[in-house]
Structure formats: structure tokens, C-alpha cells
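Supplementary Data S3. Sequence and C-alpha cells for construct A.
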Amino acid sequence: MKKILSTIIACIVVAGCTKESPQPTLPNIDIDWAPDATAAQRQSIRKMAEDLVQVEGGTYYMGVQHTFPASPGFDSTTWYEQTPVHLVTLSAFKIGRYEISRKQWYDIMGDGTGMDGHYTIETADLPIEGMMRVEVDTFLARIEHLSGLCFRLPTESEWEYAARGGADRPEGNRFSGAYYSDEVAWSYYNSGGQLHPVGQLKANNLGLYDMSGNVAELCSDIYAPYPAETQFDPQGPSHWENDLMAVRGGHYMSNDQHCRVYYRSYASADYPMTYVGLRLVYIPKKEHHSTTK
């Protein structure tokens, strides 16, 4: 009898241990798969949704200045493009934990787009780079068609706020998650002249990786001088000079100054943007519907 009971208990334990783990849930995000969504596309889109990080709203000083050491946002080694320092208040948003990988890009877009046109097993987790803006728009539209999920590029103010660490940001960090670049950024000094898989270095306090270095990141704003006045959820100008796109974060061939959280750059949307990748912000369905009416 004891042997029978021991056998039954052992079977129960083994059955419990071999039970499949539940799939991770996506709180407040409903995916509506299109019939033509492939298994690879579903996997990549689901990962984008699972990797979203909630950034609570708040107010911060955007930009940096090199004139008054006792004033907010001082760094003696900056340029005028990052001035004037100004207050920005943002609503909460969800942003990707990682830069979009080559696998995610090509699963959605297919070969022949981006810098290299394809990926291999060895390069699947490298960040995508070298897209044109029209390709980015197609990428976002295809995600929506395949899953019903809507994404967009971050605004420049959202990007900097998230890179600094959001509402509970530590003060004084020049890079996203650290004062020194080597801990958090693949740059000219430690990259070996090549891209690295996403998420290999230290994250910032929000859990966001590679916001400094690896690939620079495209924002939705037209690149233009900063305003001096306080702003609320700014979207950037609709037009300025050559309508270049704002780019943030620096890349694997940048010096460390270009990888700082307040450094600004730009790229032409009409040509492949070398060294530039992307990170996405999720648009809740209610917001998407309100903007498309």
C-alpha cells in the first residue's frame, strides 16, 4: 500500500513539474491577428508588446547649457544645439525596452529593406539600421495590419525623458543609466567598430537598454531649435528648413559626447539613415481612434 501511495505521489509531482509554463500576458493590450500573419511575424510583434516599459508622466528640464554651472542642465562640453534648457511636462507612455532588432524588422518587412537587406541567425539580435522614413512608416502600418497594434516613433522630448530615467531619474547621469559611457553605451571606444546585439550592457533605471550608443534612434520630430518656453507634450514643429528628422543617442562609431542623453543630431528622411535605428512607443487603441477620426 505504501508503495502504491508513493508511486501516485511521485506521478503527481512529475506531472506538476512538467506542466507547460503559461504564456506571458500582455496587460491592457489585445492583439487581433490578421489571417495572413505568419508565425514569425506573430512572434516578433508579440515580443515588441511584451517588452514595452511604462514611463510615468512628469516634468523635467530638457536640454543642457554650458554657461551657468549653478543652473539646471549644466555641462561645460556641450554645443548650442542642445540649448536653451526648458521645462517640459509629459503624459505617461509605453516605450520599447530595446531597439528594434533585425529579426523583428525583416520578419515584418521582408528582405531588401534597411541597411543590409536581410538577417542571419548570427545577426538576428543586432539593431536594424539604415532605413528610410517611408520604410519606417510601412513597418508601422504592417504591424497594425498584422496585429491591430499601433506604434509610433517617440517624440524628442519623450526620448530624452525616458533616456534620463523618467520621473524617478537619478540626477547627474550624462548617459542613459550611468555617468560614464562604458557601462551603458557601445561607442567608438568599446564597440570594436561594429554593432552589438541589443540589451547586452547595463539598462537605465527604467529598464531601457542601449539608449546611449549602439545605433542612434529616430524620433518623430522635425529637427529645429529648442523653444525657450515651457512645453506640454510637445510634438515638434511641422516644418523647419530642410525638414530633417531628429535623431538621438549616438551610435557605435560615436565619441562619448554624442552618446549623452541630451545630445541632438539629425538625418534626412529621404535616404537610408546610416547608423540610425528605431525604438517604438505604443499607441493605446482609444488614443489611436481619437487621432484617426
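Construct B, processed identically:
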Amino acid sequence: MQRAFESLRGIHAVERVMAKVVQTDLEEEENRLFKELLEKQRLSIRDGLRLAIDKMIKEEVRVDPKDPFLSRKPVGKSGLGDLSTKHDAYLCRKRRRRGIPRHERTSGA
């Protein structure tokens, strides 16, 4: 828990126009550790919580629905109607045809 908050020093809280009150309960040990970290960094509880929340939000992976990788339609045709369900079997057959000995084949590839 300590390490997560020690890395917050360089993060600046974003100015907030509207606020929502949030309340929670902390275990005694969580509260003690959190207050120690806040003291070391000379932060108020409010600022420490805002920094932690901002960090979590920034670290969240967001998917852009307009990303061309996600929005492109398939361009190739395999001619195989069951390719999506049997792709491993087709790949395995292709490896056999190329002359790869059975002992060198792996079940995961």
C-alpha cells in the first residue's frame, strides 16, 4: 500500500468545477498508513485522495471505438466457413504440409 502512494508526488490534481461528496470506511491499519504517507508528502486527506483517484483514472486503459484497428472490416476470404472455430486445426494441418516433424510441433502454436 505504501508504494502506491509514494509515487504520487509528481502528479498535480486537476481543477474541479463541480464536486461530488464521496464517503468510505477504512480499516485502522489502512487509515494509519494513509495518514503517514500524507504526512510525509505534506498533503491533506482530500488532496491525497484526489491524487490517488487521478492516478487510477490516468492508468485506466481506454479503448477508442474510432481506432482503425478495431473498426476495419475483414478484407481476406479463406473460403472456409468454419475458420473462426477451427483455426488451430487448419494451422496445424498447414504446418504438417510444410514438413515440420511431429516431435517439433507444439499444441499451443
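DSSP finds five helices and no strands in the chain. The helical segments are 2-6, 28-41, 45-59, 68-71, 83-97.
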